[in-house]
């Protein structure tokens, strides 16, 4: 048997693997249907553990590395959950042909919400002055959309969102209304004004990116803007997903987000800024990279690919934004001081304090 014969054999095996995956997905869809009909949750952590443990054991018996088998099964589980979640969102959708408007629907997050509402059966109109989305009816100006909407999502930049919400209050816009801004302080006056006008308005913060397919373990924050009915209606849109729903007061949101988003963004911007100014080429660093460096580089690369104007808004429009940035600068200075002074005890204390904090989070 020569090299080409062996490659042909591998091609045949690859085809068989894909056929088995396709068969598995077919069974997954049947499992999802049974779960929905019996009101069972989409995700079953105990079952996932059984599958992974079984894969590791089978791998050992077959002479395959157990973690390779586990990694393959994790990917298949994620794919299965994604298919089941999408099927459930579609089957339990609340749209039934009702009209939905996504303002800023040509942007990345607006597009996500357009697809999400469409999957629930809503007839989606996208209002975006720049980007058109071929799959949906599009208008450049939301005020010219021309009909009443059951749901309106405001996914424009923060300052534009505030102006849109203000105008909605003056025009008497009806139906469920919510913004998806990463900060809330710039929007609070408009949200309050809109609620006072009698509008069914709330505020939502999806804590995931627009490339997210599976909402399992992803968080969505719901904030009461003065209408409990609106908050409950927005939460209901996500009821058929596996997203973790959290509630928060509008006034406390930005202080926490300054750490969750502001600090994490700043860390990665600092990381790739240091690399960019170091004079070292990426290929050269890749030749000697470590596990920690590779993991950090992957996260930093995703941050670098994001919208810089949005990230500047998150930093500059948050009245609490400087607090974690100044704390970060102090922390870096403290690390530098321990190295400069050859103070091993202080360095160890920094790491031990951090370990205790992280352990306390479970």
Structure description:
This protein is of the alpha/beta class. Helices cover 60% and strands 11% of the residues. Helix 5 packs parallel to helix 6 and helix 8 crosses helix 12. The termini are far apart. The mean pLDDT is 93.
Average pLDDT value? 93
Shape: globular
Q: What is the domain total for the residues?
A: 3
Beta-strand content bin: 5-15%
**What's the CATH architecture name of the largest domain?**
3-Layer(aba) Sandwich
Total strands: the figure is 8
Biggest beta sheet summary = 8 strands, mixed
What is the ordering of alpha helices and beta strands? HHHEHEEEHEHEEHEHHHHHH
Strand order of the largest sheet: 3-2-1-4-5-6-7-8
How helix-rich are the residues, as a percent range?
55-70%
Whole-number radius of gyration?
A: 25 Å
Tally of individual helices:
13
Under CATH, the homologous superfamily of the largest domain reads NAD(P)-binding Rossmann-like Domain
Uncertain regions spanning at least 5 consecutive residues? none
Q: Whole-Å distance between the termini?
A: 55 Å
CATH class of the largest domain: Alpha Beta
CATH topology of the largest domain, anyone?
Answer: Rossmann fold
